[in-house]
Amino acid sequence: MGLRPQVPSLSTAVAAGQLTGGWSGHGRPVHATLRTLLDRRGGLATRRDVLRVAPPWTLQSACRAGRLVRVLPQVYVDATLVRDTPTELPILARIDPELARRAALAYGGGRAALSRLTALDVWGLRRQPPGEPMHLDLPVGSGLSGRPHLVVRRRPGFTTEPPHAVIRRGVPVTRLDRTLVDCWPLLPTVDRAGVLIRAVNDRLTTPQRLVAALGEVPRLIARPALRALVDRLAAGCRSPLEIWGHDHVFTGPGMPAFTRQARVRVGGRTIYLDMFAEAERVDIELDGATSHGDPTEREIDLRRDALLATKGILVVRFSHRRLLADPAQVRQETLAILASRRLGPMIT
Q1: pTM for the predicted model, two decimal places
Q2: Under DSSP, is residue 281 helix (H, G, I), strand (E, B) or coil?
């Protein structure tokens, strides 16, 4: 569970010159209790919150005077927290994203969780660009609908607790595997694979959990492509290059069933092998487009390969350029190396 983000108080922000306008000095003063409430809650309050501590006229007066702005039904923020430009944007798009998320959750009345692209941002896997709507999941029957800059989805039996949602960075969000599946058709095509690969590589989820989540959404757009990617991740592929190699080079007649990300202990170290042919004791390493640009990184690889040689493991490296430009030749060389290892060392 993450820590709840710290929101500066209104008085601190005003003192630091971060906000414009004010709550006094022009027109009728705002009720001191309302100001205290907003200060304590980082500039946001619901109508219910206000009516617990002040009479209705206080809220009405603050809105008429331009001190408060309604960002969603029953949800208000201090007007000094609303950016002046561009004024054609919805109010939710003109306040800090974190404040906008708090406002959306307040609108949900404790029954909502951030979902899809907004949840993906909270999980730290993709930042939502300015202007992209927020997403909120609610149970069926909530009676709430979408608003400008806020997309609402109603799900049967949805709750803000597991297995539907968890707390991340202090706010309820849909669980990551379901978030990734839901986001698949919403993401730009070029970003889809990278987000899922990163989530698995960072051990935030697993291919098995993604398969289970995919089963919850049988009519997902572009489902076959997602299932193919999850299958490659389950096979051990951990980069777009490895997936391409799996599909075009290292499977088929003559190729062994490589163990991907095989774990080997050598010299007190744990080393993970990209593709390990155990019977032949061959490790195929696929070097990315930026690999070995740094001599220090090259030296690290050489030492690693030497350690593996003490265990009788031959390391064969193929560059990003060669793999993509001449896959047939890479395949031929791989088959020849594997065949020679099966025959044993040649004597001349």
Answers
A1: 0.81
A2: coil
> Tokens representing 320?
């990003």
Helix (H, G, I), strand (E, B), or coil: what is residue 71?
A: strand
For the stretch 75-116, pLDDT in tens is 999 999 999 877 788 999 999 999 999 999 999 999 999 999
Structural domains of the chain, ranges and CATH numbers in brackets = 10-82 (1.10.10), 185-234 (no CATH), 241-343 (3.40.960.10)
Cα–Cα distance between 89 and 57 in angstroms, integer? 29
The pLDDT, as a whole number, for residue 55 is: 86
- Cα–Cα distance between 176 and 163 in angstroms, integer? 11
- The 10s digit of each residue's pLDDT in 260-313 is 989 999 988 999 999 999 999 999 999 865 555 578 888 888 999 999 999 999
- Packed helices 223-234 and 240-248: angle between N→C axes, nearest 10 degrees: 90
- Tell me if residue 38 falls in helix, strand or coil: helix
CA distance 147 to 59: 22
Q: Cα torsion at 99, 101, 102, 104 (round to 10°)? A: 120
Cβ within 8 Å of residue 84, ≥6 positions away: 20
Question: Which amino acid is present at 320?
Answer: H
> Of the candidates 183, 123, 175, 126, which has an alpha carbon nearest to the alpha carbon of residue 151?
183
